[in-house]
Amino acid sequence: MEIRVAAYAVVVDEGRLLLAHWAEGGLSGWTMPGGGIDPGEDPAHAAVREVREETGYDVELDELLGIDSVVFLSADRVIPGPDRHALRIVYRAHVVGGELTHEADGSTDEAAWVPLDEVDDLHRVGLVDVARRFAGLPVRS
């Protein structure tokens, strides 16, 4: 089983949530901005770096919201691979600079501000709902 540790940010501004559109291996869906931690990298630095890469925004982290642990069995993975244990570290953050920019040559292809009351209607990965619950944001059951 492989282990993947990643860091993500929940960024809310004026009733909108910042999301990145994951597009990899012919599959897609909206996700939280963030991603894998490089060897030796601090998770907080990884979250800030990943938000910048995927959305164009510079952010400051406000607080650690939670750590999600989930196992994806190889038979259930959308992209073929071994069983994966994913540890997902989620922070609350706010924008301090930059401008909305879509990532080029990465695992995401678009970034967008989505009104909070429209997030439930999006095709999204499960992490979006996990992060919203951590942040105390409404999630339709």
Indicate the topology.
Blueprint: E1 2-13, E2 16-24, E3 27-31, E4 34-36, H1 43-55, E5 57-72, E6 84-98, E7 108-115, H2 126-134
Parallel strand pairs: 1-6
Antiparallel strand pairs: 1-2, 1-4, 2-3, 2-7, 5-6
List keywords for this structure.
2 helices, 7-stranded mixed β-sheet, alpha+beta, Nucleoside Triphosphate Pyrophosphohydrolase, 141 residues
Walk me through this protein's architecture.
With 141 residues, the protein is α+β, with helices and mostly antiparallel strands. It has a single domain, classed as Nucleoside Triphosphate Pyrophosphohydrolase. 16% of the residues lie in helices and 48% in strands. The chain contains two helices and seven strands; from the N terminus they run ββββαβββα. Strands 1, 2, 3, 4, 5, 6 and 7 form a seven-stranded mixed β-sheet that branches. Strand 2 and strand 3 form a beta hairpin. The relative contact order is 0.29. The model has no long low-confidence stretch (mean pLDDT 94).
